[in-house]
Write a structure and sequence with these properties.
The chain is α/β, with parallel strands linked by helices and 372 residues long. The protein is 31% helix and 30% strand.
Length: 372
């Protein structure tokens, strides 16, 4: 048994919608085809020869990475260049490669949010807002006696969230009519006879990224052979998404004390501290990956400390000038946990959908630096 690649991609895009990606980024299917049968998935930070060997050894059909293999347009595929060699190997072996990068970083429950939670930040908010989630109104018509089970199925699939309230719906009673034609198997009435039924109109609000999931959940428990429903676009502004998160710490401390927490919770051995190292830390901004350019954004958002990677000499100087402490935990250090994060999500989502595929975490060390 296996699952089509497109089905796996749909699961990924629930937590990492493509509209959350930065304009300069390239996300989605890098190499392969949407209708490939997938039995085993390898999740890695990025792709190289060692990850390819790992995929072949584990008989993976699909590799999912955080960092994209292809950023710019490919003008040729030459096996004497790393990128060309990688593309050739993937095509020759019949292995798909899919990447979710800044769309996973920026999304509402994505990697930035996950790292902020790992560091124990309270109620983390978006540091640099890129946009707001969009919604649809889903209306479905249900025969009397089944309105509760359909409503619960939609709510359990993620519909009806308004603030801190879930399962929000509105129901109105009415009369539905239908004429079963030849070859149908109606739940009510007989073939060839016009039937009228007591029905409920059940309506709710659904994030765009969850419409397919919610509709599928409703149809699975709906008794009708053909389900009538409507989907309307809404102008309601949803939750913000964007790069970075900012939140309060569990208690006040100094940058060096907080650095110990970063090392412990992110599982890294060393880091750098700079900027205003005498600052008392109560509010922390987090940008996984390369986030030195967010010094100003963190300062204006009221952060005492920025945790990120790839911070330059001049960015440290800028941070000190505005009274901001900075911890550089490394690009790899702030993103390596994407492997377990995305793997856990895919296992849970695949289990909910009863999909037949195995998710394997890569054990290849992607840290390009060796401390000497």
């Amino acid at each position: 048994m296996s699952t089509k690649a497109q089905t796996i991609f749909s699961l990924i895009e629930r937590i990492a919608p493509k509209y959350c990606a930065e304009e300069w980024d390239n996300v989605g299917l890098m190499v392969g085809k949407y209708d490939r049968d997938i039995s085993r998935i390898l999740v890695s930070l990025e792709f190289d020869d060692e990850v390819f060997k790992e995929a072949v050894k584990n008989k993976a059909d699909l590799i999912i990475t955080h960092h994209p293999l292809i950023f710019n347009a490919v003008k040729n595929v030459r096996t004497d260049t790393p990128q060309g060699r990688y593309i050739y190997k993937l095509i020759d072996s019949g292995i798909d490669l899919y990447s979710c990068h800044t769309n996973l970083d920026s999304s509402i429950n994505g990697l930035n949010h996950h790292v902020a939670e790992m560091l124990g930040l309270k109620d983390p908010a978006v540091l640099d807002v890129s946009g707001y989630e969009t919604y649809k109104k889903l209306v479905i018509y249900v025969p009397k006696g089944y309105e509760e089970v359909v409503r619960d199925a939609m709510g359990n699939a993620g519909a009806g969230y308004i603030g801190n309230y879930s399962h929000c719906t509105f129901m109105s009673e009415g009369t539905g009519s239908f004429l079963p034609h030849e070859g149908t198997h109606p739940f009510l009435g007989k073939e060839g006879n016009l039937e009228k039924a007591d029905e409920y109109r059940v309506e709710t609000i659904v994030p765009d990224r969850l419409v397919k999931k919610v509709l599928s959940a409703a149809i699975k428990v709906h008794p009708y052979e053909e389900v009538a429903y409507d989907i309307y676009p809404l102008k309601n502004r949803g939750e913000a998404y964007g790069i970075g998160r900012i939140g309060c710490t569990e208690g006040e401390c100094n940058p060096f004390e907080y650095a110990l927490k970063v090392k412990e919770r992110l599982g890294i051995k060393e880091l750098k501290i700079g900027g205003d190292i005498d600052k008392r830390v109560k509010k922390v901004a987090v940008v996984n990956g390369s986030g030195g350019s967010y010094v100003s954004a963190a300062h204006f958002a009221g952060a005492d400390l920025l945790v990120t990677g790839d911070v330059s000499y001049h960015q440290y100087r800028d941070a000190k000038a505005v009274g901001l402490a900075v911890i550089d935990a490394g690009h790899y250090g702030t993103e390596k946990n994407v492997v377990s994060f995305l793997s856990d999500y895919l296992r849970e989502a695949a289990s909910e959908e009863k999909l037949d595929c195995e998710v394997i975490e890569s054990h290849t060390n992607m840290d390009p630096f060796v401390t000497y």
